[in-house]
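Late entry, written up from scratch paper. The run itself happened at the end of the previous shift, but nothing got recorded in the book at the time, so transcribing now.
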Amino acid sequence: MIITNAIPKRKGLSDLYIDGEFAIKIDTETFLVSKFSVGSQIDDQQLKELIESSNIKRAKEKALWLISYRDHSKKELESKVRNCSDKDSAKKAVEKLESVGLVDDEKFACNYAQQLLFVKHYSKKGAKYKLIEKGIDRDLADSVLEEIDFDSQEHIRIIIEQKYHNLSDEKTRRRAVSALQRKGYSWSDIKAVIDEFIEEEYYEE
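Output as recorded:
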């Protein structure tokens, strides 16, 4: 087989023609740095390897674009890259980024756990669920959360002070309890803090 033309198109791709017929779209830069050019002979195995290199490069560029906006876990990043790439290329691209430290599950888990606990005020149980949802291994999630000093009742107080007033009102109290349980707080901690607020409201009357 002979590469008879390579026509640059949009988005960094080129139309590759073999033996006078369109064969496939390929990453332009990958083709230019390869050992092939217009007029080169190429066999099936070489074409397959060229396509694989092109796919991995495109997947890597997508992954880099995604992590330029925010950190991702390895699993989360692979999943997003697969939306515009094949599974194998996405996996290899993310592994390349992991090998140079641009993808780090432990670092991601530590930073995300801090945000969940101290900005969004999830409980440790709720934060663990969110970490796992992002693709973090259960054992790593447990390990990261164990290292963080966290007072559940203090954060329940913060949530109530920010969003819920007059807990003596049953409707307000139910809304508060439901919201706190969705964040993973235990009933015993919720009840203890709500009782404190109700008692304060009673003495303020």
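The chain has three domains: 3-99, 105-146, 152-204.
(Scratch paper discarded after transcription.)
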